[in-house]
Amino acid sequence: MTEKEKSRRNEKGDNIIEQDTISAVSTALGQGAVGIVRLSGPQALAVAEKLFRTPGGKTLQNFPPRRLTYGHIEDTDGTAVDEVLAVYMAAPRSYTGEAVVEFQCHGGTEALRKILALTYGAGARPAEPGEFTKRAFLNGRIELTQAEAVLASIAARSEAALKMAARQQKGELAACIRKWRQKLLDLIVHMEACIDYPEDDIEAVTYRQAGRVVAEVKQGLEELLSRARSGRLVQEGLPIAIVGRPNVGKSSLLNALLREERAIVSPIAGTTRDTIREQLLLAGVPLLLADTAGIRTTGDKVEQLGVERSLAALEQAQLVFCVLDIARELSAEDREVLAASAAKDRFIILNKADLPHVLKADEIKARCPAVAVLPFSATTGAGMEALEQALAAYVFGQEGRLSEGVYIQNGRQEALVRRACSSLREAGAAIAASLPYDCIEVDLREAAAALGAVSGQAVQAEVIDEIFARFCVGK
Ligand code: GDP
Q1: CATH number 3.30.1360.120 given to 6-143
Q2: What is the best residue among 247, 252, 331 to mutate for testing ligand 1's pocket, by most ligand atoms within 8 Å of CB?
Q3: Distance 365 CA to ligand 1 centre (A)
Q4: The model's pTM
């Protein structure tokens, strides 16, 4: 590694900041009024200069940074390709922390493709998915949780998700995690001092004091975890499988939820042979619904395939809508379905409540464990409100809606915070047993490392790559 490269290492140590200049179309593909081509890297300005001409023949260097400059993109032979506005942002005051040039072009796909090709010809290389944001992270402009929030806001499926992502972009979660991590690091340093200089009698770190810090941090993290599910569900969506024997009204339920005819509804049992997947927003929560083919023993090969897919959908779901026909006694097939979904969080939906009731909600509730048992009519829509309320309560708890505060947003963050908590539990036990300081320290270090990985202060390169690979090109 050259000295120059070494000096480009940032505080994360193992990540050498890229030297290439990258370019990509940063707006959505397809025709639009305006399309943006973005360049980032040490050569951004030099690349831009090769393509861009102002009417007066000035170069971008002659204009102050962060100001829009009118001009044309020219082909290598000097013919005008597009009329654009260019803006130059000098390092480090840009999104990536590097020199950035953006061209606001006319949004036609061909023009954008052409301009992009010209940037490649002038020395840039195509950006990988999420590479701009990755550079922002590697350059210390943002923390990992903020980068994830950028991703979340692009993918936001509801207003609540967007709001949550916006708060996280400001770094609220990162700040909160950093605070807890710092408390642990301080404690570690203090204990180290005790180990290294026992003669100095730094007995200030008594077990009691250490126990207090550990308990405080653990409590803070547990509070975060208690709300993690809502955060994750709002961001990532709630996967739901609709199961039930044929003809109980699964497709009708899906249609009622979607308020449109999507699944084929028919009175012949076993018509929904494949799993139909739909997304919709209910009570502010994006639902990822899978209407399954039904779960029953069948000789029909095609239907059997559907049944297998249904079981897979059931497996993947976090919540199951188990549909029964309220107007009929439970059949053997109904029991099969109830047994297959028993281990899952489920709502038992007693459909066809517009017909005379044979099943009683109370009896079902007493016999079958379920989060909720809800009479419903896909035909009349009766019970929809209760279903929405039950969903909101399931996702957000008693309050029934997203409360203010800091939220863990995804499975990665949640797993790390859980790991930190479990290390702190060990540390707490070690403290209670008055084990030697260095034993306690091992657990404290593990907890601090897990928290460091949340905000990206101590995270492996592969994890970083995996996170940014989920972005789209140009972000
Ligand atoms: P699936 O096989 O479980 O998907 O059931 P479908 O949605 O195809 O519905 C089966 C039959 O039940 C159709 O004839 C529907 O019109 C009827 N059905 C569905 N929901 C209701 C309901 O709430 N009330 C009544 N009366 N009929 C319903």
Answers
A1: yes
A2: 252
A3: 22
A4: 0.62
CA distance 236 to 244: 25
Domain 151-227+408-456, CATH = 1.20.120.430
In one letter, which amino acid is 197?
Y
Lowest mean pLDDT among 22-36, 42-56, 263-277: 263-277
More confident residue, 53 or 399: 53
Minimal-distance CA residue to ligand 1 atom 18: 249
Residue span(s) of the chain under CATH 1.20.120.430 come to: 151-227+408-456
The confidence score (pLDDT) of residue 205 equals: 58
Could you report the per-residue pLDDT of 95-110, keeping only the tens digit for each? 999 999 999 998 778 8
- Ligand 1 within 6 A of CB of 246: yes
Kindly state if the Cβ of 245 falls inside 6 Å of ligand 1.
no
Which tens digits make up the pLDDT trace of 248-282? 999 899 888 887 544 444 444 544 445 667 777 77
Residues of the chain with CATH 3.30.1360.120: 6-143
Is the pLDDT at 466 greater than 80? The verdict is no
Domain with CATH 3.40.50.300 in the chain: 234-396
Q: What pLDDT is attached to residue 9?
A: 42
Please, which pLDDT band fits residue 421 given cuts at 50, 70 and 90?
Answer: very high
Rounded distance from Cα 269 to ligand 1 centre (Å): 10
Task: Retrieve residue 375's tokens.
Answer: 């009479």
Assess whether the C-beta atom of 351 lies below 6 angstroms from ligand 1: yes
Q: Using a 6 Å cutoff on CB, does residue 244 contact ligand 1? A: yes
Tell the residue nearest (CA) to atom 10 of ligand 1. Answer: 247
Fold of the CATH domain 234-396: Rossmann fold (3.40.50)
Ligand 1 contact, 341 CB (< 6 A): no
